[in-house]
């Protein structure tokens, strides 16, 4: 009987060595918030796509996923790339009927006004990894959080108003 207990104990110790260690990085869903009158047609975090965002909106949709460290560390950054439509409601002025030659021409002229941006952004400190929240701010500024809380909840690192005005001139980067 003692041999059986010894064999079980040794087997248990050996099996512990087979257990997976906790990962250093995990996939986190991506969501975005536009705090301006511009629409974000598409964006990505470290090459992984986020949902499109209506003007002064967001947070309702998530895409999967970008990886971040389980534990935050100083100097943690992500690369955010996005396409912005500065006049998302311009189509109400396009000629009718939709998809006619005149309408398509107006759409092409409108799309030529889209702007594309790229920024390396510091990730706000987090204790527990949550969704990656990308906040699009005036002057093509971006803030990124990955805390396990929603905007407006205690512990959320940002308190941006949902509607922010673009200043007449933006500071030079």
Arrangement of strands in the largest sheet? 4-1-7-8
Whole-number radius of gyration?
23 Å
How much strand content do the residues show?
Answer: 25-35%
Reading the helices and strands in chain order gives HEEEEEHEEE
Number of strands: 8
Task: Characterize the overall form.
Answer: elongated
The termini sit apart by 75 Å
Largest sheet: 4 strands, mixed
Helix and strand composition category: alpha+beta
Which residues sit in consecutive blocks of at least 5 with pLDDT less than 50?
A: 2-15
Helix-residue proportion:
10-25%
- Per DSSP, the total helix count is 2
Domain count: the total is: 1
Global mean pLDDT: 86
Provide a descriptive summary of the structure in words.
- The chain is of the alpha+beta class and 173 residues long.
- The protein is 15% helix and 35% strand.
- It is built from two helices and eight strands, in the order αβββββαβββ.
- Strands 4-1-7-8 form a four-stranded mixed β-sheet, with no helix packed on it. Strands 3-2-5-6 form a four-stranded antiparallel β-sheet, with no helix packed on it.
- The N and C termini lie far apart (75 Å).
- Mean pLDDT is 86; it is low at 2-15.
SSE diagram, text form:
Layout: H1 2-16, E1 25-34, E2 39-45, E3 48-50, E4 63-69, E5 77-85, H2 101-111, E6 115-122, E7 129-137, E8 141-147
Parallel strand pairs: 1-7
Antiparallel strand pairs: 1-4, 2-3, 2-5, 5-6, 7-8
């Amino acid at each position: 009987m003692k041999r059986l207990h010894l064999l079980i104990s040794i087997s248990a110790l050996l099996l512990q060595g087979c257990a997976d260690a906790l990962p250093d990085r995990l996939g986190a869903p991506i969501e975005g918030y536009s705090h301006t009158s511009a629409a974000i047609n598409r964006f990505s975090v470290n090459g992984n796509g986020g949902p499109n965002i209506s003007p002064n909106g967001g947070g309702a949709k998530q895409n999967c996923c970008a990886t971040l460290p389980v534990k935050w560390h100083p100097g943690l950054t992500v690369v955010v790339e996005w396409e912005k439509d500065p006049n998302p409601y311009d189509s109400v002025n396009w000629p009718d009927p939709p998809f006619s030659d005149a309408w398509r021409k107006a759409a092409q002229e409108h799309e030529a006004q889209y702007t594309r941006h790229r920024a390396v952004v510091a990730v706000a400190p987090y204790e527990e990894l949550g969704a990656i929240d990308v906040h699009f701010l005036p002057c093509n500024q971006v803030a990124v959080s990955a805390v396990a809380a929603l905007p407006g909840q205690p512990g959320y690192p940002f308190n941006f108003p949902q509607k922010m005005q673009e200043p007449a001139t933006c500071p030079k980067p």
